[in-house]
Design goal:
The chain is mainly alpha-helical and 453 residues long. It is built from 16 helices and six strands. It binds arginine (ARG).
């Protein structure tokens, strides 16, 4: 095999070295690698390091490779050490010895940093789009089920009655921030590392600003060591994936609970649920369970990336080759999860039972507060009422005017009307709280937030 670096070696690489060090994961960067090379060649021509004829020849060769890459017909061979050497090898095959000028003023170190940025920029925009669509799906579900009332839970105990839509929209807000994070990492990615070379720059009259502009970057690296040796933007991207997966795992967990017969809140379409090989009656929410499980992998990828960089000396070290496996896996995990969970959610039929009347206990306390009773006293009064009813095995809806009077003489008989859960929601006035008006406002706001650039 021919390597890019055979000159100083007397023996060819051992098979074991080759198998251990070669990267095939980076083949996913093929198009980005060629796009970067096109800009680099144009720059070399512009500064006179390539003649106009050489520039044309190389660009024509790269154009063929770009077509092969885009059409999936580019062939890798065993001797390709990584995607960069594969492209250079193919270029020399296509245009002859002039192809050997491609790597002028460049190192694979600034090249991989560039390829990753090109990939991340595109991938971040795609994930933001996917998250936007997923968020809008939650908004549509909230709107379609705007009339349903459920309990909101704290400590997994029924807390207050709220619209189911309010609960679904809580996830839509999380998703909107996940989307925003991908948009913001995109801004930080707009710095071109091309021209940093191996680590310290070059004696050749390169024009990194030209290549940066060609590739749509806003600015050029200010420090070549940072440009080739840092991977914080990869970590940041994978953190965005992991955080979004963690949100989806929480949603999944709730969907799993809600499909149980104990909750009975929701049913998903047969197409999006699975059966049991042993238990004929089962209908399982496997997509949600796997989404919850795959969040673990995304957290693992993030952890691996942090560990990969911890204590690593500057500038480039081959360890960094390992970043791609984690990057691509986390990226794919989020993409697939959004698709599958979105499909399942779009078949959701919600039919939650009403919340327990106990969830209106706060309304009784607030009635006293309105009459000037300090909240702590009002809380204690309702607590006494609850204790008495519980001790006698009665529900809150079975309370009488006498029960209220026994708990606190500032209660009025009409307060008995407060224990209706739907009316509790209707009384709610906090902006952003669990009321029907708040849900309508949120739906409008989220439609804006989830579609803006
Ligand atoms: N395949 C390498 C990577 O993915 C590219 C840079 C290799 N540089 C080197 N000097 N071996 O990180």
């Amino acid at each position: 095999m021919t390597t890019l670096w055979g000159g100083r070696f007397e023996e060819p690489p051992d098979r074991l070295l080759w198998e251990y060090t070669v990267s095939a994961t980076d083949r996913r960067l093929l198009v980005d690698d060629v796009v970067g090379s096109v800009a680099h060649v144009k720059m070399l021509g512009r500064v006179g390091l390539l003649s106009p004829e050489e520039t044309d020849t190389l660009l024509r060769g790269l154009d063929v490779i770009l077509t092969e890459a885009r059409e999936g017909t580019f062939e890798f061979v065993d001797g390709d050490e990584d995607v960069h050497s594969a492209v250079e090898r193919r270029l020399i095959e296509l245009v002859g010895d002039v192809g050997k000028k491609l790597h002028t003023g460049r190192s694979r170190n600034d090249q991989i940093a560039l390829d990753e940025r090109l990939y991340l920029r595109r991938a971040a925009a795609t994930q933001a789009d996917r998250l936007g669509r997923f968020g809008l799906l939650l908004v549509a579900l909230a709107e379609a089920n705007a009339d349903l009332v459920v309990p909101v839970y704290t400590h997994l105990q029924q807390a207050q009655p709220i619209p189911l839509a309010h609960h679904l929209l809580a996830y839509a807000w999380m998703v909107s921030r996940d989307r925003q994070r991908f948009q913001q990492v995109g801004e930080r990615l707009a710095v071109s590392p091309l021209g940093a070379g191996a680590a310290g720059g070059s004696s050749l009259p390169l024009d990194p600003i030209f290549t940066a502009r060609e590739l749509g970057f806003d600015v050029v690296f200010a420090n070549s060591i940072d440009a080739v040796g840092s991977r914080d933007l990869v970590t940041e991207y994978v953190w965005c994936c992991a955080q979004a997966m963690v949100h989806l795992s929480r949603l999944s967990e709730e969907l799993i609970l809600w499909t149980s017969s104990e909750f009975g809140w929701v049913t998903f379409g047969d197409r999006y649920t699975t059966g049991s090989s042993a238990l004929p009656q089962k209908k399982n929410p496997d997509i949600a369970e796997l989404a919850r499980g795959r969040a673990a992998g995304a957290i693992g990828d993030l952890t691996a990336l942090l560990a990969l960089q911890k204590g690593l000396p500057l500038a480039y070290n081959r360890d960094l080759q390992e970043d791609k496996e984690h990057l691509f896996r986390a990226d794919d995990t989020l993409a697939a999860t959004l698709e599958a969970l979105g499909g399942m959610l779009s078949t959701a039929e919600f039919h939650p039972p009403p919340p327990s009347p106990w969830t209106t206990a706060l309304d009784l306390a607030e009635a006293l507060v309105r009459r000037g009773v300090p909240f702590r006293e009002a809380h204690a009064a309702v607590g006494r009422l609850v204790a008495r009813l519980v001790a006698e095995g009665r529900e809150l809806t079975e309370a009488t005017a006498d029960d209220l009077a026994a708990a606190d003489d500032r209660f009025e008989p009409a307060d008995l009307d407060l224990v209706d859960t739907r009316r509790s929601v209707e009384r709610r006035v906090t902006s952003g709280g669990g009321s029907f008006e708040s849900v309508s406002e949120q739906i409008a706001a989220l439609r804006h937030v989830l579609t803006r650039d």
